[in-house]
Design goal:
Protein name: Molybdopterin molybdenumtransferase
CATH architecture of the largest domain: 3-Layer(aba) Sandwich
Mean pLDDT: 90
Cofactor: Mg(2+)
Distance between the termini: 25 Å
Keywords: Magnesium, Metal-binding, Molybdenum, Molybdenum cofactor biosynthesis, Transferase
InterPro entries: MoaB/Mog-like_dom_sf, MoaB/Mog_dom, MoCF_biosynth_CS, MoeA-like, MoeA_C_domain_IV, MoeA_C_domain_IV_sf, MoeA_linker/N, MoeA_linker/N_sf
Oligomer: single chain
Low-confidence stretches: 3-12
Number of domains: 4
CATH class of the largest domain: Alpha Beta
Structural class: alpha+beta
Helix content: 10-25%
Organism: Azospirillum oryzae
Length: 417
């Protein structure tokens, strides 16, 4: 299963900054250890469990980069065009079948092995041939249009490191090395549920005071994009015993449990005591907006992550807090999103001492530089702000406000997913 340190954070203590919280988490959560063998066709998005070492050079031999004529560079005239007899033809997948001879030219095609000793290839467009001979222009450099053996991958080198989430190009590289299967980490098993008597499934009729459950579907989609095996536990009523029993049952067959809402200390907030009844809750209040109430704990061996209840806060804290935890559980290498420094096209007041995430989009200014605009409404329940934005504008703790023209960090949503 997973590893999580027993130390806890004091509930209600000073709010913790984002970076120290993430650094602390990195030392307290270890990866799921189970692995499996999957075919290349099923490897996309999976986490590689062991280094992939090249068993041979790629390409395995020197080969032609273009269609043309292979020659010995030293056979070429230094003063003008050279005329050489065309003595053989080599296509991709063929060999010359004999040692190359000085003074000859070999008709060759892209990808075909270079005749041993020949070191230069003329493009066919630059040559004139009557079939028996070829006229080669002056001015070519030694070794041009020749791909060297091992130019792409050297034998014995680590081409894909353990912990890499496999992309299409990674799978192509593995195939080029003859691997039909790969050893990957088993998918992280994550259970998701919502709590709240006011929540309804999208297909149900809304009574007065009820709302549709959007958070659960957002989390399921985010987890699926991350490569997790997700179990939807649905909506649980605001009943301590129901939530307690559901957590215990889910923990027996999952690596992580994720909820949204119910993490405060009100009379109808039962998630916190339900978690503590089954294990322990390591809880802190993050100095972050939106999304201050975030919880980390363990329920009978499964990692528990409790996110805020507002939809925007759920997405922001998942991307910035839950995602690094889950990647570590998956055994994946660090995939911290890369911020783009851009110019602000807005003014914004901010409370110092907490990190703030605004929703925004990018455009080109008159000078061609990237400029970030802020979505006009900041509320943590404004779900449309995520739909109509391209990413997050991240404002650090020590910043007191933004003025037009200032440089700010922009995190595109695609950097997280």
């Amino acid at each position: 299963m997973v590893q999580l340190d027993n130390d806890c954070f004091a509930f209600g203590g000073p709010m913790m900054a984002v970076e120290p919280a993430l650094a602390l988490l990195a030392g307290r959560v270890g990866p799921v250890t189970a692995t499996e063998i999957v075919p290349l066709s099923d490897a996309l998005g999976r986490v590689l469990a062991a280094d992939l070492v090249a068993p041979f050079n790629v390409p395995p031999h020197d080969n032609a980069a273009v269609d043309g004529y292979a020659v010995f560079f030293d056979d070429l005239s230094a003063d003008g065009a050279s005329v050489l007899p065309v003595t053989a033809r080599v296509a991709a997948g063929q060999w010359l079948g004999r040692p190359a001879v000085r003074g000859e030219a070999v008709r060759i095609f892209t990808g075909a092995p270079m005749p041993p000793g020949m070191d230069t290839v003329f493009m066919q467009e630059d040559c004139r041939s009557d079939g028996a001979t070829v006229t080669l222009p002056a001015g070519i450099r030694r070794g041009v249009n020749r791909r060297l053996a091992g130019e792409d991958v050297r034998e014995g080198s680590v081409v894909l490191a353990a912990g890499r989430r496999l992309r299409p190009e990674d799978i192509a590289l593995a195939a080029s090395l003859g691997h039909a299967v790969l050893e990957v980490r088993c998918r992280l098993r994550v259970a998701v549920f919502s709590t709240g008597d006011e929540l309804r499934q999208p297909s149900q009729v809304l009574e007065p005071g009820a709302v549709y459950d959007a958070n659960r579907f957002a989390l399921i989609a985010l987890l699926t994009r991350l490569g997790c095996a997700v179990t939807d536990l649905g909506i649980l009523p605001d009943r301590f015993e129901t939530i307690r029993d559901a957590l215990a049952e889910a923990a027996a067959s999952h690596d992580a449990l994720i909820t949204s809402g119910g993490m405060s200390t009100g009379e109808e907030d039962h998630v916190k005591p339900a978690v503590e009844a089954n294990g322990r809750l390591d809880f802190w209040r993050l100095a972050i907006k939106p999304g201050r109430p975030v919880a980390l704990g363990r329920v009978r061996g499964a990692v528990f992550v409790g996110l805020p209840g507002n939809p925007v806060a759920v997405v922001v804290t998942f991307l910035r807090i839950a995602r690094p935890i889950l990647l570590r559980l998956m055994g994946a290498a660090d995939e911290a999103p890369r911020a783009i420094p851009v110019r602000a096209a807005f003014a914004h007041k901010k409370k110092p001492g907490r990190r703030e995430f605004l929703r925004g989009s990018l455009a080109r200014g008159e000078d061609g530089a990237l400029v970030a605009s802020k979505y006009p409404r900041d509320g943590a329940g404004v779900l449309s702000s995520l739909v109509e934005s391209e990413g997050l504008i991240e404002l650090p703790e020590d910043l007191a406000g933004v003025e037009p023209g200032m440089t700010v960090d922009f995190l595109p949503f695609k950097e997280f997913l």
